[in-house]
Amino acid sequence: MKPGASIKIWLQSVMASLAPITGTLGLKRAAHLLRRATFGFTKSEMDDFAGKTISQAVDDLMQFPAIPTAPADGATGTTWNANGSIVASKGKITSWWLHQILDPDRNSTAFFKLTFLLHTCLTISLKEMIDNTSWYYHLRLLMTYAGGSYKTLVTKMTLDPAMGKFLDTGINVVGHANENYGRELLELFTVGKGPQVGPGNYTNYTEDDIREAAKVLTGFKTNTEWDNTTHYDPDTNFPRLKIKTSLHDSTDKQFSSIFGNRTITGTSTESGMLDELDQLVDMIFDQESLDMFIMKKVYRYYVSYIITPEIENDIIVPMAQTFRANNFEFRPVLTQLFNSAHFYDEDDSTVGDEIIGGMIKSPLELYLQTLKYFQAFVPDPNVDLLGLQEWLYNQVETHLTVMGMEIFSPPSVAGYEPMYQEPDYNRYWINASSLPQRYHYVYSRILNEENMSPVPYGNFNMLDFVEDPANIPPFNGGDSQGTPGPHEGPRIAEHLVRTLLEYLLPVMPDASRVEYFLNEALLDNMSFMTWEGEWDDYRASGNDSMVRPQLNRLFKAIIQSPEYQLG
Q: Smallest Cα–Cα separation from 171: which of 244, 279, 280?
């Protein structure tokens, strides 16, 4: 062996890699992929994905649904969309998005989690919307371009009435250029700030660049004339800001050497203003700093907040190259990432997982994934549309806020602190105030503790759940007395507990934790034989007074465990 050869081999063994892995996905990988790529899935879907090849599983997640039109308002029965206006409340519009995720008839897809990523890249707060209509079209714009080019989305978003209200594009006029949108366009939406290297110079842009960008964007005015199609975007058929040539700065705009000293020639026509905008976006997207800035957001959103120099060189850079080579579309990047050895933490020799189970779930992930996995009762909109909308608005959205995440209403234009704030990022989801609320709301609002019938919206019946062999399969071995199987899955205590832990937790806990869930949470230190007898009595009589409290303790212990907070 040549000198240094063993060192070279070791370095290769720990090198982060986006190289694809092949073969069957398997349960552990399937669970990780579904937790990270989606907002919800069932055990049956996990089992189905586990049997797929990795590439097939990822391809299936990349099948995006058609965007449904707005439904009727549950209170009035009338269509939301009347002469371009939306008559439903903002909360009900958000509920419309939530229901698409929770729809029990919809297959798992990466679409909705990607839509929310785009919201974190192009952040607004629905609290600041002009009215309900602007919020509806903004949300539809994110959904429309989730499978398309981020570059095109940035162009469309610049003229979006909701964004115009939130960052003052709609009051940006010649002689009094408002820099709010121009600043965030560069700092948060595209190239990122970078280290400050001089007065007003932030590596990736300067203060002068912000001022020149603001001049490009003068003359686009607030629009609330929702029925006036002359102010609609021809590609999306959604309303956009009005174009007022008299309010546009028609002088030339000179950018810094960072942008190659580019000049955007001033114009005074509607088509000229739109062309200036296109030139501005082209100039920004020519910067490779944009690729790295956005891909770091993608990595922190789907993989880990820890980005070492090795991760940056071996993972982020190739992702950025894929992003640029595919017209700034996210789907090819996610396909590459979700197929990679790195995503499944199989590209190093470190004992233990740094990626699987290495992120704290956001309240949105925690709540929706719990609702989906336990197949909590979601009302049929064709039967009780008003009840569905009110449940999603008055309970789900409210509970998420209490848990520390007011969805689509981040505290600042920078977004939700756990998604961008150094040094701990997603760890900020957990604090002394939010943790008890996560425990309380996810447990108390989903588990039908009082055994109410019919099951309340958003609840599930734990006995129905465990009795379903799709959730707890039969046990083919012998019971505690040696009676050969098959036995009903929940009758065998250890089989029941291990099945739940294997599917609900990202990593199977050690023996002492399994012992806790089994003997303390479920059995309360009774014998296996006693549990089997109680289960047999329940199945014979229908009286669940002995088994339900024990199952209740088990589900509560799992849902309120530290491990369940991880994804």
A: 244
Q: Which of 347, 341, 371, 344 is nearest to 445 (CA)?
A: 371
What distance in Å separates the CA atoms of residue 380 and residue 384, rounded to the nearest whole number? 6
Q: Are 378 and 104 in contact (CB under 8 A)?
A: yes
What would the pLDDT profile of 5-36 be if each residue is shown by its tens digit?
332 322 333 468 899 999 999 999 999 999 99
pTM equals 0.94
The phi-psi region of residue 296 (left if phi > 0; otherwise alpha if psi is between -120 and 50; otherwise beta) is alpha
pLDDT the model gives residue 8: 30
Per DSSP, the chain holds a count of helices (H) and strands (E) of: 26, 6
The per-residue pLDDT for range 448-471, each reduced to its tens digit, is 877 888 899 999 999 999 999 999
Which amino acid, 139? L
Residue-wise pLDDT for 334-355, tens only, equals 999 999 999 999 987 564 558 9
237 burial level (CB within 10 Å; 0-12, 13-18, 19+): exposed
Tokens of 66: 């058609």
SS3 at position 295? helix
- Residue 81 backbone phi and psi in degrees, to 5: -95, 105
Q: Which residue has the tokens 């009347």?
A: 82
Please give the Cα distance from 433 to 363 (Å, whole number): 13
Alpha helices in 378-446 (DSSP H): 381-391, 398-402, 417-420, 434-444
| Domain coordinates in residue numbering, the chain | 150-158+171-285, 363-565
Q: What are phi and psi of 294, to 5 degrees?
A: -70, -40
First to last CA, the chain: 43
